[in-house]
Amino acid sequence: MLEKQDKKFIVALAGQPNVGKSTVFNLLTGLSQHVGNWPGKTVEQKTGTVRYNGLTIQLVDLPGTYSLTANSVEEQIARDYLVTEKPDVVVALLNAASLDRHLYLISELMELTPRLIVALNMVDVAKQEGINIDVKALESALNMTVIPMVASKNRGVKELVEAIAQKCTETVDTQAAGHVELGSEISNDIAHIEGLLIDEDTSPYPRHWAAMKILEGDSQINKLLRNRLPPERQAQLDSFLSDKESAAITLAGLRFDWVKKMLSSAQEKPGAGRVSLTERFDHVATHPYWGLGVLAGVMAVIFGVVYGLGIPLQNLLQVSVIERAQNLVSYHAQFMPDWLRSFLVNGLLGGVGLVLTFIPILVLFFMAWGFLEDVGYTARVAFVTDRFMHLLGLHGKSCLPLFLGFGCNIPAVLGTRIIESKRARLLTLLLAPLIPCTARMAVIGVIAAAIFGGRAIPVTVGLIIFSLLVLIIAGLLMNRFVFKGEKAVLMMELPLYHKPNPQTIGIGSWQRTKSFIKRAGTVIMAMCIFVWALSYFPSGNITSSILAYIGKGLEPVGRLMGLNWQLMVALLTSFVAKENSIATMGIILGTEKAGLSQALRGMLTPAAAIAFLVAQVLFVPCVGTMSAIRHETGGWRWVAFSIGLQLILSFSLAIVVFQIARLA
Amino acid sequence: MRSERVEEYLEAISKRQKTEMPVSTSSLAADLGVSLPAVTDMIKRLESEGLINYQHNKGVSLTAKGSRAALTTIRRHRLWERFLTDILGLRWDKVHDAACRLEHAVTPDMEESLAALVGYADTCPHGHPIPDKNGHVKEQDVRPLSEFKVGQRVRISAVVKEEARLLREIEKLGLKPNSVVNIEKKDDDGTLELKLDGQELRLDKATADYLMAIPLSPSEKAAEEDIPMSMLRTGEVGVLKSYTGGRGMLGRCLSMGFTPGSTVKMVENFGSGPVLAKVHDVEVALGRGMASKIMVTRVGSEC
User: Fold this and answer.
1) Is residue B257 within 8 Å of A260, Cβ to Cβ?
2) pTM for this entry
3) In DSSP terms, which residues pair with A94 in a beta bridge?
4) Is the Cβ–Cβ distance between A393 and A487 less than 8 Å?
5) What's the rounded Cα separation, in Å, for the pair B117 and B115?
6) CB A101 to CB B252 under 8 A?
7) Taking 60 as the threshold, does the pLDDT of residue A176 lie above it?
8) What stretches of chain B show up as alpha helix (H) in DSSP?
9) ipTM of this predicted complex?
């Protein structure tokens, strides 16, 4: 046997969503954490290390789940982990302010692990709500260690670590895997199902537990058995289950009865008549009109910060770092071969470097996102906007990611993570790149000002409305033809509002930024180099490069939208970053920024200018967004779909617009 | 203070008066379990104190003063019964006799404290109304359950005979004051077949005679019907009954706490779009489609 000090203990952190799990996880592990995905799933997996008294504990954050019946990917991940990895200790984090609901999870956890510690978070909120909890009484009712905590104020963390360490080193289980009293009827049913199965059928799940889940109608276990059981036993099982439809309801009822019993002596609570602060604020925040007002206000503040701080910072980085470095290389590195210099200036600095200048904007969005999430407001946004999103076959949770898209499509794509339904998530993720982001707005700004002068603003507003209409129509069509079947249904908890925790927001934003930087160094860099190579080879000059060749090849299409090959090339380079279009035009037309307006006026009729802007707004997602799509969908398939979709939208609509505008 | 015997007599007359007016001395003797001469003696005494009127060969009736005194005793009796069941936790079939003895040893101050202690309950554990301090009784138009017709839906209001064996039997059937039952069938011998919360049960005529009931009012009937949760208005409270949706949504609903029997409070419902409901102390947003597949019974409102 290994020495105690050498053994690495595995501890899983379980809990319902919105219980403050990330805060506790961060407190326990600090920055020594690793963020990735659960194998084969697009659900975030966080692991971290805790060292205490010579023990090394690996902490695994299980996805937030309401139960352990496989209603969602998260629930399946959580229980599979408990069954297959058999962690040494499972910490169940509960919300002290709504124990009636949170103990439900314990009733399921204790069926799978005998080594549970209960961490009772938010005891301060509970007190505020007038709820009295007798920790000792709860401990003896549950026969488990209960640690009261206020994670947001760093209270109870030390005690929790001590309890974990003690449980880890305990050699005998002081509590057996238990379950709620099931009554004779349910027990008999479970025993009957158990009798129809052998251990191999249900492995890795314990047979008794699997039998209970079958009775509860768990789709995953049923599917598993369908693949394993011989037909005659399957038929026996099916016929037994045919009149057990209500067993799931009965079992859930029994679990809640158990919860009630556990709490009978441990909790005192004010009558139901009390209207909480959350409820009072929600009267406004979830109102169909006022709620939209609140949302508009919140968005105004976020975009105010992004425009007031993020964009100037991005500009500053672009001008004083990237462009300065580009100049430096261009003028002072004459000793380098031409291709190397061009690679450095246009491929690296002008590509990845430019993408990286967006980090301040991204960080601000990640922070704003983390803030809204931590405060508990995101769920309200979903609630208020659900009625509109429903028209697109989506539900309210899709709204916030799309809103963020106006700043930058990357956080929009990453933000789709909050949507549980796979179908709704994909649809949102594919619609997000159709939102005109700040980079596209910059291009529109330059060209609209050059061509339309005083009428630039109505043109710009018109384009935004146009692209939103396209988004809605694309959403409706995809909903109808690409993603048939299951409709998005809204069912989510609106957590109590609470004070945001800077550490949670900070670490969350840092993790997301880190992951973006990592992608910038890999996927994004590769794509940038690829585009650079196209624009450099074979001649070393963009006007006679492969890219130009492609642009010329596209000229017949371009002509339909009133664009010459130079503009087609400008469009193609927006692939790296949307505002590249302007720089490319400058290079191809051989003018500095100042002369660009004049050159554009000479080249573009108003109809062609509109067509170009339409094509530009709807053109394929930039490399950053693509890498985010790949990251979120776990492959290139949907990236390709997205490129195809937007290419078709962009070109066909630009052609239609040009043909109509020409007549007008 | 009046003697215990006097109070007992007044109480008995008062109860008898509901069915018999004036009350014959023989009924009184039977109710109190005493001999006729004893009753006659006591009647003379009560009349001289101005508590009753006595009509020879007909019977007695309470005067205003007597009726007031009787109600006070009844009030104290029923308050004690409440105390014994609700506070001391005695079973409802064990409290009547004890209350008979306790009721006489009460001062007005004690009476008030007792009423406060049982939360100013307005009925005794057996369903009879407790007169208020001023002697007002909220009488309802009750009839024995045996007199109702098949198909009627009625609310049990009270058990008139507080005999331990009978009470235990009724309790075993799951019936109690405020239970709502459907009269499904009536046999020739008067045995009733009832439906209580979906459960069938049989009740012989003798027992049904002792159970008082009132038909449900139209508004109660309307409130009783199961409605989709989406029809609860803001502030209204319902009890979850069943699901009409498929098995797919069931699992999620159950794990979110929407189990049959749980209380659901509608926090926001604007008539269109999603609704916001509170269940097990947590606010849950639900799409309207889903909310319309969850059936509830409206039980009241909080706003």
Assistant:
1) no
2) 0.70
3) A120
4) yes
5) 5
6) no
7) no
8) 4-16, 25-32, 36-48, 64-82, 96-102, 108-117, 164-173, 205-210, 218-224, 247-255, 288-291
9) 0.76
